[in-house]
Amino acid sequence: MKAPIAKRIPFKHTIHNDVREDDYYWMKERTDPEVVSYLEEENKYTNEIMRPLEQKTNEIFESMVARVPEAEEKVPVQNGPYFYYSRQQKDKQYAIYARKKAAGREQLTEAEEEVLLDLNVLAGSDDYLSVTQQRLNEKQTKLAYLENRDGSDRYTLYIKDLTTGDLLNDKIENVYIYGSIEWSRCGRYMFYVTVDDMQRPYRLWRHEIGGAESDELLFEEKEVTFALFISKTQSGNYITVQSSSTMTEEVRLINADEPLAPVELVDERRRGIKYEVEHWGDHLLILTNEDALNFKLLRCSVSDFSEREEVIPYDENRYLQAIYPTKDKLFLFGRENGLTQIWMLENEELQQLDWPEPLYTLSIVGGQSYEAEELLIEYESLLTQDTTYSLELTTGDKQVIHTATVNGEYNPESYNQHQLWATARDGVKVPLMVTYKKGALDNGPAPLILTGYGSYGADSNPYFNAYRLPLLDKGIVFVTAQVRGGGEMGRHWYENGKMRHKLNTFTDFIDAAKFLIEEGYTSSEKIAARGGSAGGLLVGAVSNMASDLFKVIVPEVPFVDVLTTMLDDTIPLTTLEWDEWGNPQNEGDYTYMKSYSPYDNVEEKDYPHMYITTGLNDPRVAYWEPAKWAARLCTMKTDDNTLVLKTNMGAGHFGASGRFDHLKEASEVYAFILDKLGVE
């Protein structure tokens, strides 16, 4: 079977006296039967290409499934008289959320389980289900949650009565996927955020549970470059209302005890100033980047926001990202030396918590009570599975209370993990996280998969993945390049990989690959590049800039038609992202963005083997971006290498929702990579 050749309909974009030819612009018409037909033909071709690899795909899938624990339970988190947790059952796609009533952890084994939500039952026969933002009322008698069945960012709010097990009649549509629902303390009102036609969260509403009156609009974010989010402070006393853009923040407060009171502004927005607000005792805590690139901590009285004093001064080597107060202790979360860190405030100084490995990732377990006497911290590394520590707040002692199960034999001593530093072309040192099985490099360059992201200031952290073990056992080396545009090395790392510094993201990745080849880890015949979403842009741009450097490239849901998307303010998220990529209505931004946009830089030359994915319902990166790019590549490339486009016709940006369906997708990708790298 030959690769499908998409029809070409001449179309020209003209702006700033520049003309862009776009013969595949017709693919934007999702309702056009020819568009769906083309995507289906590409899927048939992908299936045909993958048919000889069916055994390899199944072997990888089975080896991954063999690592899935028959039953896995998350650490229960105490909230008043209950402990809340999620668990997975053998052969089930989705999680089960439950609670037990117990005086302490020691009594949990004997306590009776109450299932709150079984997503397997909720999913029914539907192919896709996403449930987010489970929120309990203060009395813990009602559970609000968001549900979606098509992969978009438009969710439906449901409220379940935990006493009767019934759903209330309070059903609300068009609620945003995250940061969008909170209860008043009395439990009589629900605050929620809805999206506009472009799926931008922008309106805050107050809903009376069971009320006959129309919901009241409390605030509308009218600036199209801003999104609106809400969250409850750790104390539960306030609900923060955050108007947020890439560069600027504005926060308002709702008193959770006075749900009918007006929303109160903390600080007016000023371009370039980011801040977040928490509550602790008689003070508001304000984490801000004003005159402090990597943020500092201030505080003010809850009754007077204007008078502020410094709590934690600015330190250019310490990137403060979040505040976490408990009743008696204050913690800060951030990064130092490229790694996540947690600090405890003691005697007006930050004390860093110590950890057993040189590479690791930390997170504070969600849902913990402000009144708790312990702080639960999750720890993992490339070689250490998810491990939960309990930090006693009175003594400062910490101990492991749970370690995730890894099915099958696993000895971390059989593998290596370490950090390397590649020198970018401008002299900047780029951190690389490396893991492989001992002996993998004994016979010279090894097959290697290099991943990266490098956008939005997002962090690529060293995390454990049991599904990676079968591939490590085959001799694959895994490397993550923490390229500029991410936040791994601080706010400056992000600033130097966005807007008109975006090329640094791509050249960092290229220079990292060259470094790995020069150091003998791999060769251009044995290296694959993989990235999703903005990481798909990364590997897509690299495919044009250094096509001879990689054997295989896997762009997943890639953002590749940068100009067409960013010039169309009717597309979801476009306006929110002008401060990330630039606004191409500005000629300087347009020219710079065009210089790297993968779709606009396809050339008549050889390209690596490519496995491209997309989702028909993806609201974040429209299906037509990868589809158009694949069509243009297929027409222009001069090699005989394989190029496939796989479209998930029933999912969105995050692919399949069930854990086994997700593994099937991953297995096919890995089978493709391993085949092209010559790995049995």
What can be said about the biggest beta sheet?
8 strands, mixed
Q: Rough shape?
A: globular
- The CATH topology name of the domain at 42-65 and 410-677 reads Rossmann fold
**Relative strand content:** 25-35%
CATH-assigned homologous superfamily of the domain at 42-65 and 410-677: Alpha/Beta hydrolase fold, catalytic domain
Into which percent range does the helicity of residues fall? 10-25%
By helix and strand content, what is the structural category? Answer: alpha+beta
Taking pLDDT < 50 over at least 5 consecutive residues as the criterion, the unreliable ranges are none
Largest sheet strand order:
32-33-35-34-36-37-38-39
What is the mean pLDDT?
95
What is the gyration radius calculated from CA atoms? 25 Å
Specify the CATH architecture of the domain at 42-65 and 410-677.
Answer: 3-Layer(aba) Sandwich
CA-to-CA gap between the ends?
Answer: 25 Å
- How many strands? 39
What's a concise summary of this model?
Residues 12-402 form the Peptidase S9A N-terminal domain. The chain has 680 residues and is of the alpha+beta class.
Textual characterization of the structure:
With 680 residues, the chain is α+β, with helices and mostly antiparallel strands. Among the domains are: 292 residues, 3-Layer(aba) Sandwich (Rossmann fold), CATH 3.40.50.1820; 89 residues. It is 18% helix and 35% strand. The strands form nine sheets. The chain has an eight-stranded mixed beta sheet, sandwiched between helices. A hairpin with a 4-residue loop joins strand 24 and strand 25. Helix 2 crosses helix 12 and helix 6 crosses helix 7. It is globular. The two termini are 25 Å apart.
